[in-house]
Structure formats: C-alpha cells, structure tokens
Amino acid sequence: MHHKQNNWILYEKPDFQGRTIALEEGGTDLENVWAEPGPQTEPQNSPPIVVGSMRLAVRDYSIPHIDLFTEPEGRGRVTPYHDDTIETGSFGIPLNTASIQVHSGV
User: Which domain holds residue 12?
Assistant: First the structure.
C-alpha cells in the first residue's frame, strides 16, 4: 500500500466503530490484523482486510482521495473515496480490501 499525503484511520466496522489502523504518510505493508487467530499462513494467503469505514486524520487544503482495491498491489476492482466514509460496504456486504492507495486529504 502506498499513500502520498496525510494520515488516515481505517475502522473495522461502519460508523467509525471497532478496531482501528492508523495509516501514516508513505508506503505501508498491510496484513489483515483483524483476522481471527488460526494456523500460521503465508501473508499472501491471508484473507483480505475488511474496512468498515475510514476517516482522514490530518487535514490540509487538498481534495481527499483514497482508493481501496480488491487485489494486492493496487489491482482488481478499485473503489475511490473522497471524504469520510461512514460505511464502505453496500447492501450490508462489507468491502474486502487487499491493497490501498492514499493520494491526498482535505
């Protein structure tokens, strides 16, 4: 995962609830830290992380932009966001995220 400006907070559940992960400026390797403990598997075989909501932590004057991808390394279906997002899923189905690219904040 690579993000270019600002810091974001990912929440495990919609409405900014549950466990959180803080993303600082720069590149980050993101493993599914919310997965249930089990037999050790290779990181590339772990299930994708589910992001319920996200919020920009540091504000500036640029337009916010973060992309969530269904596949590692910025591949697969991309879902772009440009503001705080109270729920990333749709129709009650959470958004599975394997990689993230943060472009800018507010």
Answer: 2-104
